[in-house]
Amino acid sequence: xxxxxxxxxxxxxxxxxxxxxxxxxxxxxxxxxxxxxxxxxxxxxxxxxxxxxxxxxxxxxxxxxxxxxxxxxxxxxxxxxxxxxxxxxxxxxxxxxxxxxxxxxxxxxxxxxxxxxxxxxxxxxxxxxxxxxxxxxxxxxxxxxxxxxxxxxxxxxxxxxxxxxxxxxxxxxxxxxxxxxxxxxxxxxxxxxxxxxxxxxxxxxxxxxxxxxxxxxxxxxxxxxxxxxxxxxxxxxxxxxxxxxxxxxxxxxxxxxxxxxxxxxxxxxxxxxxxxxxxxxxxxxxxxxxxxxxxxxxxxxxxxxxxxxxxxxxxxxxxxxxxxxxxxxxxxxxxxxxxxxxxxxxxxxxxxxxxxxxxxx
Length: 361
What we know:
alpha+beta; two-stranded antiparallel ribbon; 12 helices; disordered N terminus
């Protein structure tokens, strides 16, 4: 079967630097497809009467070359009948890597290309129109970030409400590399240094051409942060599971909402001038407590107070978005990550008028 060609429509994207990365399509399959996939997954069942063990196939998978990248095809019996998943990186199919997101307007065409590749290799696949989205990673590229490890660390000090995942992790270099927040199975937001992530993938690759491609792409993205909103169950809840008619407005609104919800949009820098302005408006009793806590943090000493006041003053500092590093920094501009422009920008609001954290269901 002939496969539709791919095109790059980045120039016509409503918001450059915003689009899709990983896509998972799911639909009904046949037993014929289930048996074709070479990597089988079995589960052992025990007969209650005889104690005999029986191996029952529960799933299977394979990897297929798709345009300039790879696609994973998995089948399972989650609902008692065979179902198939096609998972791929949409921009990697077009460019060979995911250094930049694929515009949402190109997603239906790219999904059809991935499906056509699978159909040409396997029989028993569902029709393209019978597939639906079960995962979609929305991506926002943020450029001109001055110090990525420091930015990630500062953002990690702002506690987001109503999230079960909150993890700051180091990369292979030892620097802070990623900050992840979200809720298992529903959505997850990851903020990470793109150049470092691409170098890590190049290090792990056994393909010389891909290694060189990734290293070159990484060298052009040294000041880039990548923000990914990985949508799963939330796609169904928001009624955004169509892969043929993409609601760009709704998806962009959802991304902006979670960018604020995870507190990645808040002011995180500014040096002693900003810290002084924020602490100065506190009552004298709170000023003494938070300053003592900041000094203990800088000197790596235990808090000079009992547990209850320590918890209170820590919450005050989180609300103010002030850390011990602010006292050591040179006086500078208060900075924040801006979703609309896709850059790190100077915050123009008064420090004392800092908005409270966003709290949404």
